Amino acid sequence: MTIERYLRMIAGAFILFSLAMAKIHSSYWLLFTAFIGINLFQSGFTNWCPMMTILEKMGISSCEK
Fold first, then answer.
1. Cβ contacts of 3 within 8 Å, gap of 6 or more
2. Cβ distance 4 to 62 under 8 Å?
3. Nearest CA to 49 among 7, 5, 1, 2?
4. What is the Cα–Cα distance from 25 to 43, expressed in whole angstroms?
């Protein structure tokens, strides 16, 4: 699997987790959802995402290489 697929799966899992926590625990968890959305939005312009850096350090390869 490539880093891009891992990134999409992790972002999706984080969003689903934060939505569930907002429903179960506190609506403040929606701030985490907003953070993920903002990060995905800015990565579309800058082509940089902190999670991709972490995944690269874990040795996961990109489809661009």
1. 52, 55, 56, 60, 61, 62, 63
2. yes
3. 7
4. 29
Q: Note the pLDDT tens digit of each residue in 18-52.
A: 999 999 999 999 999 999 999 999 999 998 989 99
Residue 35 CA, distance from chain mean position: 9
CB neighbours of 34 closer than 8 A, spacing ≥ 6? none
Cβ atoms of 9 and 55 within 8 Å: the answer is no
Structural domain boundaries in the chain: 3-55
The amino acid at 8: R
Q: What six digits make up the tokens of 44?
A: 């579309």
